[in-house]
Design goal:
This protein has 169 residues and is mainly α. The protein contains nine helices and two strands, in the order αααααββαααα.
């Protein structure tokens, strides 16, 4: 898998991924505060939590499932490590209607393997996450159109980070 898509996903989904233990408590607090006041729900799941859910669990929003997600997140952080977790995320994340994984998405949308995605293409692909059914690449939804330039800027900001560089190797 190419560096551009890895960097784009980190920039768009979980910029603290190299540094946290599977949970971003600051984001969780912000989401809880927002969700008490608003009818729209805001999530705070890290890449690790999304992998735990997508690989081992089901999609509902019950406290029981969330509790299991905490357990599996802790376990994969301990056993797999960051590179494997990121690889699993890139392989299983839904990236369109019936499309799973960035390799399949890259072939579908850009007619090339993920390792050959340009920075812009990778940012566009990462912009549909975490809801590619609502945030479509083709036709390009307003959210994807607005979000991918932001992800490109974040990629530039993150690229020099030593911990991020380790994940890109």
């Amino acid at each position: 898998m190419g560096d551009n898509i890895k960097l784009a996903v980190l920039a768009g989904e979980d910029q603290l991924f190299p540094d946290h233990n599977g949970f971003d408590f600051k984001s969780i607090k912000k989401a809880m505060k927002h969700n008490k006041k608003s009818k729209s729900l805001r999530g705070a799941s890290t890449i690790s939590q999304q992998v735990a859910k997508n690989v081992f669990l089901w999609q509902d929003r019950t406290y029981f499932r969330k509790g299991l997600e905490v357990y599996f997140t802790f376990m994969i952080e301990q056993i797999w490590g960051k590179k494997r977790i990121l690889q699993m995320y890139l392989n299983v994340a839904q990236t369109g209607e019936g499309i799973f994984g960035v390799e399949a998405a890259s072939e579908h949308y850009f007619k090339k393997p993920a390792k050959k995605l340009t920075r812009k293409e990778a940012a566009i692909l990462a912009s549909c996450l975490p809801n590619p059914i609502l945030f479509t690449i083709r036709p390009m939804s307003a959210r994807v159109a607005a979000r991918y330039p932001w992800i490109l800027r974040q990629m530039n900001n993150l690229q020099a980070d030593q911990d991020v560089q380790e994940l890109l190797k």
